[in-house]
Amino acid sequence: MKTLCKSRNDKKLFGVCGGIADYFGIDSTLVRIITVLLVAVGGMSLWVYIIAALLMK
Hints:
Elements: H1 16-24, H2 28-41, H3 46-55
C-alpha cells in the first residue's frame, strides 16, 4: 500500500510537492506550478502547505 510521504530526493523546501507527485505518479514540476497558482489565486492558503509539511512523514 502506498503512503503519502515527503520526498527525500525531489525537494525544494520541504519535499511536500515532490511527495505528492511521487504518490500520484506525475511530474513534480506540475505539482509545484499548481501549488503556486492555488496560493497566488487564494484558493489554497500557505498554511495548508505548512501543515502538510508538518504532518507528512
